[in-house]
Design goal:
Blueprint: H1 6-20, H2 25-100, H3 106-110, H4 121-126, H5 130-136, H6 145-152
């Protein structure tokens, strides 16, 4: 830029004192100072705006790379799922070929060979430990309504 040393600044000040005069020199110097301050703030704002735009461009580039990576990942996962489902369908078709091959009875080929185990829920409830039932307030001994009334009847009225 400009190479303004102390001697050049003194020369400019002396010329300004002669040309402008000592009465108006302080006001002109103040105006020049405010204009220089405004110019410096404007330059700083422009620099900050340029830096923000550069950072925004970098973020947009990063966003596009992340989006492409996500799209690539999604497509690869979908391809893997598709290949796995094709392999499963092929295996299922191979496994069910023997069932469809019996020509004497098509209904038996589609009939399920699975039979429900018919679990006894009373056995399952009986497997619960007694301390757990007592802790959670589960009734362990079932009484009829009449037996409950007789149990909680006052002592003088028992029949």
């Amino acid at each position: 830029m400009l190479d303004l040393g102390l001697d050049k600044m003194a020369l400019i000040g002396a010329v300004a004192l002669i040309v402008i005069g000592p009465e108006r020199l302080p006001r002109v110097a103040r105006t020049v100072g405010t204009l220089l301050g405004k110019a410096q703030r404007y330059v700083a704002d422009v620099k900050a705006e340029v830096n923000r735009s550069i950072e925004l461009e970098e973020l947009n580039k990063m966003k596009t790379t992340m989006e492409t990576a996500a799209r690539d990942m999604t497509s690869s996962v979908q391809q893997e799922i598709h290949s796995a489902s094709q392999a499963f369908e092929q295996t299922w078709a191979d496994a069910t070929d023997g069932m469809n091959g019996s020509e004497n009875d098509h209904a038996s080929a589609w009939a399920p060979s699975y039979k429900h185990p018919k679990k006894n829920w009373r056995l399952k409830r009986g497997a619960t430990p007694q301390w757990y039932k007592q802790h959670n307030g589960v009734r362990r001994n079932v009484q009829s309504g009449a037996a409950r009334v007789a149990r909680f009847r006052p002592p003088g009225q028992r029949a």
